[in-house]
Amino acid sequence: MNEPVAPGRVGDVRRRNLSLVLDSIARTPDAKPSRAQLSAATGLTKAAVSSLVADLVESGLVSEVGLYRDGERGRPGVGLELSTRRGVVGMEINVDYLSAGLLDLGGTLRIHRTLESGNRGQSPESVMSLLAGLVSDVAAEASAAGIMLLGGGLAVPGLVDSAAGTVATAPNLHWHGVALQLDRLLPDAPFGTVLHNEANCAALAELWYGHGLDFRDYLFISGEVGVGGGLVIGSELFAGPRGQAGEVGHMVVEPSGPDCSCGGHGCLESFAGQEAIFAEAGIAPGAASERLARLGEHLASGDPAALTAVARAGHYVGIAAASTARLMNLSAVVLGGHFTQMGPWIAPAVVESLADYAPGVVSPARVAVSELGQSAALLGAAGIALRSVLASPFSLTTSG
Ligand SMILES: [Zn+2]
After folding, report:
1. Ligand 1 midpoint to CA 96 (Å)
2. Whose CB among 170, 218, 347, 355 lies 3.0–4.6 Å from 332's, allowing a Cys bridge?
3. What is the structure's pLDDT at 171?
4. How far is the CA of 377 from the centre of ligand 1 (A)?
């Protein structure tokens, strides 16, 4: 691996052109463009493209593939694609589990490992030790498969400062003002590990790999122990001036409602978070995954308490979504996290509530249930890391 090159050592023009060529390859994953096609697409000379591609191939970001094009005969042409021998790692700390997964530069999730772990109230040091162990297992598997890791993203269910690597508050982990030792996760990766909010990651995963492909503007609402959210506007995450927009779980949906972990009361989380739904549905205490499975069985068998609990959650999700849709001029809602397992029961309640509180704003066809399931946050965190690698290929190339 080449040492990252400090900005300035490679000429600005060349850096821009490296990005231009790489972006052109990344935009056409199925086309596997040739050097001549890249020249036509970018407006750069064939000689310039060849030189830039040589750098990208040498840095390992791009690989050559032999292929026949439609209507061509004779020798196969040489196409270019993002290398599947380079990857990034998505990681998630959740209340009930840790997970880590490897996304190759082509965008395929190659490895995905989850470890059940009761992280609520545990010290950040002990949770980070467990996570580092899991990540090191993924790194070993990647190495055995010949894949080099370039960077990573870590999703945490709380308000974070990505630049500082600190968690301002993660109420359901009981973490406040915590600096995480991100360096220990991928010590050899040139792009390091960046911290992100879990719901924002899941909202972005939906944009890149799920319903966001059709919905350019939507509110993503993710049910977990807490309820998180993300606003996607014009295919971009709207994170707000301090990166904390979209905290739909703490929108007030019932002013006289119960106290909330945030210090307020009547928040959406008090009605649509896991504890609230399990309590209302009469699901006995236990591991979250088992309780969710039991809730699913009760729903499928038509158990009135389970149906009422999920309908109530959907009613309040719909109230929050109606207000947000009005405020932000949105016309679609995507339900993620544990709501995906309750999809057939919760979605109709959300639709009904939206029709009641914001008639004509969000059509039933634009209330969607995520298909990414539990890997959404991890995919989003990895996707952000992937995009930062692709945005600065010059930091992995040496010649200028
Ligand atoms: Zn709250």
Report:
1. 20
2. 218
3. 85
4. 21
* Rounded CA separation 53/38 (Å): 10
**Beta carbons within 8 Å of 189's beta carbon, 6+ residues apart:** 89, 149, 150, 151, 152
Tokens, residue 95? 């209340």
37-90 pLDDT, tens per residue?
A: 999 999 999 999 999 999 999 999 999 988 655 555 555 678 999 999 999 999
Task: State the distance from the centre of ligand 1 to the C-alpha of 159, rounded, in angstroms.
Answer: 13
Q: What is the arithmetic mean of pLDDT over 204-226?
A: 89
Note whether 86-201+377-390 and 211-371 share their fold: yes
Separation of CA 265 and ligand 1 centre (Å): 6
Strands 236-238 and 227-233, sheet pairing: antiparallel
Separation of 227 CA from ligand 1 center, angstroms?
9
Distance 244 CA to ligand 1 centre (A): 14
Q: What is the pLDDT of residues 354-372, one digit of tens each?
A: 999 999 999 999 999 998 9
Kindly list the domain boundaries of the chain, sorted by start residue.
Answer: 12-84, 86-201+377-390, 211-371
Closest CA to 165 of 152, 174, 148: 152
Alpha-carbon gap, residue 43 to 35, rounded angstroms: 12
Least confident piece of the model among 171-175, 265-269, 277-281:
171-175
Q: How far is the CA of 247 from the centre of ligand 1 (A)?
A: 9
Distance 52 CA to ligand 1 centre (A): 51
CA of 326 to the centre of ligand 1 (A): 21
The architecture CATH gives domain 211-371: 2-Layer Sandwich (3.30)
Whether residue 30 is predicted with pLDDT greater than 80 in this model: the reply is no
> What distance in angstroms lies between residue 194's CA and the mean position of ligand 1's atoms?
26
Superfamily designation of domain 86-201+377-390: ATPase, nucleotide binding domain (3.30.420.40)
What's the CA-to-centroid distance between 189 and ligand 1, angstroms? 37
User: What is the distance in A from the centroid of ligand 1 to the CA of 272?
Assistant: 11
Average pLDDT over residues 185-192: 95
pLDDT of residue 397: 75
Report the pLDDT averaged over residues 312-331: 97
The topology (CATH level 3) of 12-84 is: Arc Repressor Mutant, subunit A (1.10.10)
Exposed/middle/buried for residue 156 (C-beta within 10 Å: 0-12, 13-18, 19+)? buried
* Residue type (1 letter), 215: F
